[in-house]
Amino acid sequence: MSDTPELPALPVTFRPGRTRAVLLTAGATIFVVITTVAMLLEKLSPGERTSFVFTAALLFGVLVLLSRPKVVADESGVTVVNIAGRRKLAWAEILQVNLRPGDPWVFLNLSDGTSLAALGIQPGIAKQHAIRDARALRALVETHSVHEPDGHQEDEHDEHHA
Q1: Which of 63, 64, 68, 91 sits CB 3.0–4.6 Å from 144 for a disulfide?
Q2: Which residues contact residue 46 at a Cβ distance below 8 angstroms, ignoring those fewer than 6 apart?
């Protein structure tokens, strides 16, 4: 049996499904419980009730933001959506996909010398699922990137080829 994962059909979205489900369920539950308590407490003024509901909505919003991360791969490249940001990368910009033991999520080594955290693939609750997703993304990067024999990627913006 080959160690190379089967390439998923593009476009493909990688996201921590179980973590997302837990966060959204907890957020909805917290919102309902706090709002219900605010409505049942007879001594609260309308302003206090409103502040309870506002606080519940704020907590739910934070949990929605925490559930936002995903990695979307399509023909043109990879879009990394993290908690508060989004970054579109061409395939050639990604040199390596890393998920080492103990890493909280995948890191992408980029052609500009930086590393980008991709929170959409994280081993938290579903470690084996994250490993499969990381391997699939790594295989997609290797398939869609053009490599020279020494292992470096060809890039029309490479200073050595200018």
Answers
A1: 91
A2: none
Per-residue pLDDT at 161 exceeds 50: no
3-state secondary structure the chain: CCCCCCCCCCCEEECCHHHHHHHHHHHHHHHHHHHHHHHHCCCCCHHHHHHHHHHHHHHHHHHHHHCCCEEEEECCEEEEECCCCEEEEEHHHEEEEECCCCCCCEEEEECCCCEEEECCCCCCCCHHHHHHHHHHHHHHHHHHCCECCCCCECCCCCCCCC
